[in-house]
Amino acid sequence: xxxxxxxxxxxxxxxxxxxxxxxxxxxxxxxxxxxxxxxxxxxxxxxxxxxxxxxxxxxxxxxxxxxxxxxxxxxxxxxxxxxxxxxxxxxxxxxxxxxxxxxxxxxxxxxxxxxxxxxxxxxxxxxxxxxxxxxxxxxxxxxxxxxxxxxxxxxxxxxxxxxxxxxxxxxxxxxxxxxxxxxxxxxxxxxxxxxxxxxxxxxxxxxxxxxxxxxxxxxxxxxxxxxxxxxxxxxxxxxxxxxxxxxxxxxxxxxxxxxxxxxxxxxxxxxxxxxxxxxxxxx
Length: 283
Prior knowledge:
The chain is α+β, with helices and mostly antiparallel strands. It has two domains: 4-140, Beta Polymerase, domain 2 (2-Layer Sandwich), CATH 3.30.460.10; 142-280, Nucleotidyltransferases  domain 2 (Four Helix Bundle (Hemerythrin (Met), subunit A), Up-down Bundle). Helices cover 41% and strands 14% of the residues. The chain has a six-stranded mixed beta sheet with strand order 3-4-5-2-1-6. The longest helix has 27 residues, at 174-200. The mean pLDDT is 95.
């Protein structure tokens, strides 16, 4: 596997040798000194270029980065429509395990090449087209203190969608029930927990994309209780997961509401938990 030094040298030398590239920026986890370092970190690179189209017309230019295991170009995709902001992205995983997410940014957008993200560094600026940056920080990703309304919305979404899981289970629709459990109920619990740990640390921490760093702030038994709800392989396991999730959510919601002097509709929580228990006992 090519080393970090080799990869950065390849990225910058490729840009230096191509007159069409005006500047090179780096963003993402490699600019964040708090992010764990490992072989799976992407190189999130932005090339500010004279013309995006000139590169796209001749895609073979990216071959100089190495032999690829797989690649995705979001702007070429139909099933997942791109943003249409004039940029073009190559998501490349190479045979040696390195990955470069390379975005071509037109020079007209040079002032906003990093789209306001403070996790950004300038690697090369041949034409002095990039604005000065402050020291890279993950502050944009810190957990934000919720308002009373946001807290109530989180709670309402959790309890409301819980009833969808019950409906799916009673109909023996495992995919339907599991989707609502995993994609909504679990995520609202993780949102609530992120607020809780954020509060404990003065809202000056990031729990990462998809809550990946959240376990670092949980006690072992809290983490294991959540893991136990991730088995959706059968109707019975989803019933167990739902009941456990509800108990956990109610517990943390009460704690968070009390600490922040928020209102919490526990009467509804109790009614939904009873509703769930009544149906689960029949199946």
